[in-house]
Amino acid sequence: MNDGSVFTFDVVGVGANSVDYVYRLPQFPQPDSPASKLRIREHLVTCGGQTATALCTCAAMGLRTKYVGTIGNDPNGERIRRELATRGVDVEHTYVRDTLNPFAVILLDERGERVVLWERRPGLELRAEELDSALIRGARLVHVDDVDEDAAIRAARMARDAGLPVTSDIERVTSRTEELVAAVTVPIFAEHVPEALTGERDLERALRHIRGDLVCVTLGPRGAMLRAGDRVYRERGNQVAVVDTTGAGDVFRGAFIVALLRHESPPDILRFANAAAAISCTRLGAIAGVPTLADVHAPSTKITKTLPL
C-alpha cells in the first residue's frame, strides 16, 4: 500500500452521473381518473447519479475527490461537469461523448416516494482501457458502481492489487456481478441483491456468504446492516419528514466512505451513514440534498427517533 503522504486524492470514483428533472406532485398520476392531470407543486433541475452523488457527499465532508466517467457533449453534460467542479470534485478525467448526457425524470408524491424514468444513450460506456492505473493507485480509496461493469471491475482490481480499499454501489445482478463483488473489498448492496446472489432470504445469512472485509446492505427507511468479520451490526432507520429519497443510498455510501477513512468502528460507520442519508431525504434533489459534516453533527439536525429494522 502507498504511504499516505503520496496520495493525490482521498477518493477516486468510477461510475455514473445524471441530470435529474424532479417534479413534486400531490400524488402519482393515474390514467382515466381525476389524477390523470396534476399540477406540479415544486420542480427543479438538479444533478445526481450513483457515483457522482457519493463523491459530492465525500467532498462536502472534506475529502479530496476525483470523478472518472463519461458525459455527453450537450448542455446537460456541461451542467454535470460544472456542478461537480463547483462542489470540489476533480473532473479532469471525464470523457466527453458525442451524445446526450444521461438524464432522469423523477416524480415525487407528498410522502417523498418516487418513480424514476431514466435514459442513458449507447456510446456512453466508460471503457476499461480508458482507466489510468497511476490515478487509481494514487487514491486512498476507490469507489465503483455497477453501471459500466468492465471499467468498474478493472478499477477495483487495480486498487485491490495496490492494497487499497474498494467500496461499491451494487443495485442489480448480472452475469458479471459476482466478478465485481470479488474485485471489491467493501461491497455495499441494495436490499434485494444479497438474496439474488446467495439464494438466502435471511439477510444476515446472506451477508455471511459474501466475501469482503466489510459487507453492507442498505435497507431504505429501515436502516442498514453490516458484517465485519464474524459480527453483524444492524442500525435502524432514522425517522424524518421525507421530502425526496432520491440519492439517499448514494449519500449513505459517501458518508460510509468518510467514516471508513476516519477508521470509525463498524457501528459508528453505520450510524453516521444512516444519519447523513436521512438528512438528504429531507431535501429536494440528489446532489442538491447532500449534507455536510456540520449538518450531520448540528444539534438542530440530530435525529432521535428510529424505525423498526
Please write the CATH class name: Alpha Beta
Instruction: Give the SSE string.
Output: EEEHEHEEEEHEHEHEHHEEEHHH
Q: In angstroms, what is the radius of gyration? A: 19 Å
Q: In percent, how helical is the residue content?
A: 25-40%
| C-alpha end-to-end distance | 37 Å
SS summary, helix count:
10
Identify the CATH homologous superfamily. Answer: Ribokinase
Task: Give a short synopsis of this structure.
The protein is of the alpha/beta class. 31% of the residues lie in helices and 24% in strands. Helix 1 crosses helix 8 and helix 8 runs antiparallel to helix 9.
Question: How is this fold's topology laid out?
Answer:
Layout: E1 9-14, E2 18-24, E3 42-48, H1 50-60, E4 65-72, H2 75-86, E5 89-90, E6 94-97, E7 103-108, E8 114-119, H3 133-137, E9 139-145, H4 149-161, E10 166-169, H5 177-183, E11 188-189, H6 193-198, H7 203-209, E12 214-218, E13 224-228, E14 231-235, H8 248-261, H9 266-280, H10 293-297
Parallel strand pairs: 1-4, 1-9, 2-7, 4-5, 4-6, 9-10, 11-12
Antiparallel strand pairs: 2-3, 7-8, 12-13, 13-14
Helix pairs in contact: 1-8, 4-5, 8-9
